[in-house]
Amino acid sequence: xxxxxxxxxxxxxxxxxxxxxxxxxxxxxxxxxxxxxxxxxxxxxxxxxxxxxxxxxxxxxxxxxxxxxxxxxxxxxxxxxxxxxxxxxxxxxxxxxxxxxxxxxxxxxxxxxxxxxxxxxxxxxxxxxxxxxxxxxxxxxxxxxxxxxxxx
Length: 152
Description:
Elements: H1 14-35, H2 37-49, H3 55-83, H4 87-92, E1 94-98, H5 107-122, H6 126-129, H7 140-145, E2 147-151
Antiparallel strand pairs: 1-2
């Protein structure tokens, strides 16, 4: 943190970050819909026949939750590692940089951040709330991975 001249960067706003998050979630959801289309169609048909039986939904979630999480981690890791920007961040003109160097995150930092992001998402989004109380608007996963999100 001492090595980076933070004054040359403009910290991205929570609103821009939230919008980028929403865009990225839509993209990941589309991937999931395509990957699991047949299973989702079967669940839909099953529920049409018996609306009170949610067993197919529960079974689907139990079977595929790890895949959902892995896809999110791979998506975030790949794009942040390659350019510091997911498609959502690119549209909003913001990027992730390492706090120490100001460079786009290395592979291991991008992977760490993406993995920790699952924790920020999973616990009622509490990992995002800390951004409101931090001068660098860092979420839990940014703080632990030593990254910040800045305007491009």
